[in-house]
Amino acid sequence: MSELTFLVVDDAVFMRTVLKKMLVEASYTVVGEAGNGLEAIELAKKLQPDMMTLDITMPEMDGLQAIEAILQVSPNTKIIMCSAMGQQSRVVEAIKRGAKDFIVKPFEKARVLQAIENVKNL
């Protein structure tokens, strides 16, 4: 299981910490973290992670704006969107742009791990 590498992207340090803890406890490797879409693009280019959790709402560049650029610089990265309740239309838009699944805040470990399983072999 530990062969998968992750980039965790969220403007809230607390949310990144929660997700990182879940991923590490499940024996995944977190190779980096970013606080907005611009940082996510740079790190994706440099680190080429297998998967990325990407928050929809962030300052400077949100997740929706970043998806296509991330997939251009790191085409094999599978993106799992993170959204707050009530953002269904934005989640649908994210999937259209190339995201593979989504998880809703507050994160439930079982759902996070299920999303990873869902997209791992796509």
From TrEMBL:
Phosphoprotein as a keyword? Answer: yes
Read off the Pfam families from this record: Response_reg
List where the protein spans the membrane: none
| GO BP terms in the entry | phosphorelay signal transduction system
Q: Which SMART domains does the protein's record reference? A: REC
- All copies of the Response regulatory domain together span 5-120
Where would one find the signal peptide in this protein? none
Q: Which domain of life is it from?
A: Bacteria
CDD domains, alphabetically?
REC_CheY (cd17542)
Q: Which UniProt keywords apply?
A: Phosphoprotein
According to its UniProt entry, the function of this protein is described as: May play the central regulatory role in sporulation. It may be an element of the effector pathway responsible for the activation of sporulation genes in response to nutritional stress. Spo0A may act in concert with spo0H (a sigma factor) to control the expression of some genes that are critical to the sporulation process.
This chain's protein is named Stage 0 sporulation protein A homolog
